[in-house]
Specification:
54% helix; globular
């Protein structure tokens, strides 16, 4: 009985699933597809999903160049295939395809696209949840350096909360 060797592929995913997840919840791909339309000869990922992948690359790598996206996407093949639910072709995120999408984006009615993106309920809900999460995190870890005033007998200040400069050195 022969055993097949196990092949393990490792990918460093960093913040890619988080970015893709937020953008999916914001329905960016669907809104872009709605405004850019489809071409009957286009195969592979839709224009909206190409924009989603490119935005993820820009935010994750802090690099806006088209030429580097294909190498990045080929290095995250399993992650991106899992997210998009379809096998990726090796040239899916080539600079030629991204250039075509960019040409279509340049010709789109930006007022309508921005209106759909920024005033849709899904975007407001995600932004609100992110803001609430940040506020909860900040309030939960906040420490106070404020002075505490006592209204009881004696001194108007209690020993707790004096600013550091007002303390006498020991």
């Amino acid at each position: 009985m022969e055993t097949q060797p196990v092949i393990v592929q490792q990918e460093r995913i960093d913040d890619v699933p988080l970015l893709l997840g937020f953008m999916r919840r914001m329905k960016i791909a669907e809104i872009v597809d709605k405004h850019l339309g489809e071409h009957h000869l286009h195969k592979g990922l839709s224009k909206g999903n190409l924009v989603l992948g490119w935005l993820t690359y820009i935010l994750s790598e802090s690099d806006h160049r088209k030429s580097a996206v294909q190498k990045w996407a080929n290095g995250l093949e399993q992650t991106l295939e899992s997210f998009f639910g379809t096998p990726l072709r090796p040239h899916e995120f080539s600079d030629d395809r991204l250039g075509i999408v960019l040409t279509h984006l340049a010709a789109v009615d930006w007022d309508a696209l921005e209106s759909d993106l920024f005033y849709s309920n899904s975007v407001r809900r995600v932004i609100c949840q992110v803001k609430i999460g940040i506020v909860v995190r900040i309030v939960g870890k906040r420490t106070t350096t404020a002075k505490r005033q006592s209204r009881g007998r004696g001194s108007s200040r209690s020993a707790v909360g004096h600013p550091r400069l007002a303390r006498t050195p020991s």
